[in-house]
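hiii so my PI (J.) wants the whole complex modelled not just the main chain, which honestly fair. so below is everything: two entries, each one labled with what it is. i double checked the lines twice but i was tired so who knows lol
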Amino acid sequence: MTEFILDERLARRPVAADWALSTVLFVDDSRFPWVILVPRVPNVTEIYELTDGDQATLMSETVRASRAIKAAFSPDKINVGALGHHVPQLHVHVIGRGRSDPVWPDPVWGPGEREPHAPVPYGDPGFEEALGKLRAALEAA
Amino acid sequence: MTEFILDERLARRPVAADWALSTVLFVDDSRFPWVILVPRVPNVTEIYELTDGDQATLMSETVRASRAIKAAFSPDKINVGALGHHVPQLHVHVIGRGRSDPVWPDPVWGPGEREPHAPVPYGDPGFEEALGKLRAALEAA
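here's the output for the full assembly
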């Protein structure tokens, strides 16, 4: 039995919730409400490698995170994406996008992570406020 | 009861399979094996707007498409994404990516759809060959 170890690049992000399957991480980027779901299953890089039961749970947790972001931040659109080019450990992005956000209509990944589209941290006290709002919404969703 | 009508921008793409929930469209871009799943449910733009049953089916069909692409084209990584910035009708991209493909490690959407990352059509006879290979794999998966 291999133990699940969170990838160190993901582990730098604060935990917003711990659900049945996934740990929900918060991304410190004030441009978008953005969480990352990481199923706590060792050695998985693709959704299809999960058991059928875990696939269903990942879907319901993705939906729960989407509803929480919608409720708390009223985005125009939700993005859901599993890419894994930089961090192979399976993780699913759930991001609230606005038609007037600085990257719209492009995706937030890839070129969007480099200049001139680098992340914009919340700073203090925005970070704690956003994380608190998100945690409450994840709990309620 | 509203009837489902496939968005006209999606309808330009050839149908690779018709599954219980989703129509599977083939993207004519020889850089990557790429399909788009469109659940035949009217007036839905977000996964969370589907019923619980349809959400579960969408997950299992996404996994089936991923396995078919993996089996037929042996990519290094599968991308799964639901964005909907340009075409709001709910659709899920499933794309096989290679570490040496021309866009890696960036996502294929957004800036990747514009020059210098514009699509590269298969041409003749590559298009029919790729579509045939994909259809067989989707059937078998």
